[in-house]
Amino acid sequence: MPKRQGDVLHFLNVKKVKMETESNNRNKNHCGLSKSKKPNFEYIEQPIIEEKPSCSLKEEIDNLVLPDCWNEKQAFMFTEQYKWLEIKEGKLGCKDCSTVRHLGSKAEKHVHVSKEWIAYLVTPNGSNKTTRQASLRKKIREHDVSKAHGKIQDLLKESVNDSISNLVRKQNNKNIDATIKVFNTVYSLVKHNRPLSDIEGAIELREKNGEVNCLNTRYSATRIAEHIAKEMKMKIFKNIIEENAKICIIIDEASTVSQKKSTLVIYLQCTVQSAPAPVMLFVALKELVSTTAECIFNTLLTTLNDCGFTNEYLKANLIAFCSDGASTMLGRKSGVATKLLEYFPEIIIWNCLNHRLQLSLDDSISEIKQINHFKIFLDKIYSIYHQPNKNQTKLLGTIAKELEIEIIKIGRVMGPRWAACSLQAATAVWRAYPVLYMHFSHSYSGLAKRLANINFLQDLALMIDILEEFSLLSTALQSRSTNIQKAQKLIKRTIRTLENLKIGIGKYESQIEDLIKSDKFKDIPFNKSNKFNALPRNMLLENIIQHMNLRLLSDRNHDESIFNYFDLLEPSTWPYEEITSPWIAGEKKLFHLCEILKYEISLNDFREFVNNNIKSNNVSIPTTIQKAKKIVSTIAINSAEAERGFNLMNIICTRVRNSLTIDHISDLMTINLLGKELADWDATPFVKSWSNCNHRLATDTRVRQKSTKAFYENQLAIWNLQ
Prior knowledge:
It comes from Daubentonia madagascariensis. The chain is 57% helix and 6% strand. By secondary structure, it is an alpha/beta fold.
């Protein structure tokens, strides 16, 4: 045996005997040896003096389970040579890597800390002892000289004056702060409907100013936007479910502008305690495989379940469903609403009031033949000014520019659009009347004669007066603050206005005589030819009023108008001359109202509410009555919010950005519609959850790098000129 190995073994044996016999003097000199052995101990004496815990290390080695190819001497020798080496349950590990675990800002691409060395999972390979020993020596050596381990050692040196935990915390804070800036950049791009590829330019500018960011590609920005949208939905919908809030679902179907894909937009309106009014929330935009009621229903239910709204929750808290009047949505035999009623039989099915308003107008004009002639004439004007004729467009543009009139605004009247669109088209004809006559007198004599008939001008004025009332009502119904009871009052007010119009004249009708005498209309030879009959004014107004009462103030889905139940919560609608205390008729309706709202209104509160309002108008409202009124406000009266959602979708998904998938568009809409303003938004929770999902931070160089633009020599040459 070589002399050096013999000295080490002799030292170990002597030390073991000394520790057993002099255990009481261990604190005095627990590493001492006899003088006779001192010359043989010179080789390892200095390291032991520098590292006092070496004896405890020896004790640990005696008690450890060693690798099957090592003995105690080899274990002691390697752990002394490599201070970072530790043995647990026969496997090797690195105590330094296990302490730090992550490189933080020192991370580089293809450089990472070995999970095996962190978790003490390094074992030998080979079929015999010699091979297994060589395997361990090679693994220890490779880890010792590895780049990742060297960076760990650098981090430990930096922590000489600070603890590892504080160092890691400071490093993590630095990483998170850098990532927060990237998140804010992505958030700002989404809120301003900018392409996510713009992040490359924004990050490039920050790098020019001295900041280092590695999440600088549109791929990273897309993943970040997905994460923000997911976390937003998770937090918001979790709070709604925990609060057990009552909800109303609003859906609509449309196609994207760029990709022509059928999509379903889903909103929900809910009551929350912290908000004085119901809150409208965007849920998702989903691509439809087909536009059948079955497919729409399955997509809707799956999306709600994925957001955490289970069928049990919906049975207890879903009170209404609102959509347009398409047969696919509200068909009585196989529409989406019918399928929802099979699962949730107590919900209110509500047809969008704005669509019903337009239908009442369409029903009225379809019964009067003279209106068809009026509509055909205006459609002819529309077709003339929307055909691709360059010479005509140039001539018309010149005339319109001289008179400062936008004739291009002339659109279809009484078409399948909301009243405001028809009003805009009719008003454009009214304002461009002299210009139209001038143009038609040269090219379209038949149209010019129609414009010269005073009956047509009177009909146009009447239709503008009617459409103006419809437009005012339509705009008021689209307001987010309009609930079902306010809508009823607005509809009744419009009906009264139309009734007054029957016995009087409207604003535009009263201007006709003055217009004919004005300078603008002096070149038009007005006549009153019987060839073009005027509209039956009173019949038209009477038909409109009847159809408005039929479509807007009655509910075909219920035996009794649902307004009658909601009026129980509105003292202004009560028949006070019939009310006695207690109000028996009202209490009978109250029971059914509780079933509709899926909320128990206290009978004592209702009686107190009735008594207080009989005696005085300014009284406090009981708690259960207040909550019931909020739940009634939760019922959406139109699908205007879905229309706004489709408008945002088309702003995001332009023909230039047609590579966006429907899921990506949905994420961008989520941030845009649900997210706070950038000044109020805190990205820290989103960055921490991003890190917890094992995503790369902004200081991690292992992420995908952006492609660099080639700058050719010819372009560089100009800068080298002397």
